[in-house]
């Protein structure tokens, strides 16, 4: 029987060179994501390019007591979040409406308040921010969160979609209808200036060019329907605006005469052409700077 021999190497073959190439490619490849220590922080930011959840050492938020004029929306969202945090059924929430009225501030404040009130389980409710442009990676994020002992609020601020944008389908599948669906330990909160997550001009344009105008926008409009909670935020009154300003002034102990404060705050809102929580905060920052008061918790 002929003796078995190793096949001859092809002409020009250099095993050492190929080995060095393979080692270089391995160094260039991103490392596989390891287990994440969710106990390291209360909030994280999702970066899909590196499949990384970056811990946030200090969340940029205000105390819930400083959010004025949104009592009903606050109470509903707190109750929904408390149920979810305790493992009971709860709804995904869409906070929509006027700009600067505290939608994203409320989400962050509710997370902090509910988390602190969980007793022995305090700190087990995590807040994860996903950027609007990364919505398409939601299924991948769900895979990372599924089955962990923590509960997660996945939060997307200023969510809306353009006419040619199809990434909303990833969100739609996660909210309802996907083969896996949303994990039991995950809930989604989103804020938007648009009730149906798309502009009126887009809806009118699709109606005017479609064979069946009713069906043309049904798919995108049905996306907002999949949020069980719709919380509407509307422009505040003058009294509510002044209450917001007074709340900030009292909280940060800014020395100012009440009559002068009212006149200055109203003039500030007039120059901005609107009244909102954001305008109130911007005025207070200006006032504190003029008074030499540092704004810190």
Short description:
This protein is α/β, with parallel strands linked by helices. The protein has helices spanning 15-28, 71-85, 103-116, 138-145, 168-175, 200-209, 213-216, 218-225, 238-251, 258-272, 277-291, and strands spanning 43-47, 52-56, 93-97, 125-129, 151-156, 186-192, 229-233.
Helix-strand layout with pairing:
Layout: H1 15-28, E1 43-47, E2 52-56, H2 71-85, E3 93-97, H3 103-116, E4 125-129, H4 138-145, E5 151-156, H5 168-175, E6 186-192, H6 200-209, H7 213-216, H8 218-225, E7 229-233, H9 238-251, H10 258-272, H11 277-291
Parallel strand pairs: 1-4, 3-6, 3-7, 4-5, 5-6
Antiparallel strand pairs: 1-2
Helix pairs in contact: 2-3, 9-10, 9-11, 10-11
Keywords:
297 residues, alpha/beta, seven-stranded mixed sheet
Please, could you describe this protein's structure?
- By secondary structure, the protein is of the alpha/beta class.
- Helices cover 42% and strands 13% of the residues.
- The chain contains eleven helices and seven strands.
- The protein has helices at residues 15-28, 71-85, 103-116, 138-145, 168-175, 200-209, 213-216, 218-225, 238-251, 258-272, 277-291, and strands at residues 43-47, 52-56, 93-97, 125-129, 151-156, 186-192, 229-233.
- The chain has a seven-stranded mixed beta sheet.
- Helix 4 links the parallel strand 4 and strand 5 (151-156).
- Helix 9 (238-251) packs across helix 10 (258-272), helix 9 packs across helix 11 (277-291) and helix 10 (258-272) crosses helix 11.
- The longest helix has 15 residues, at 71-85.
- The chain is elongated, with a radius of gyration of 26 Å.
- It starts with 14 loop residues before the first helix and ends in a 6-residue tail after the last helix.
- The model has no long low-confidence stretch (mean pLDDT 83).
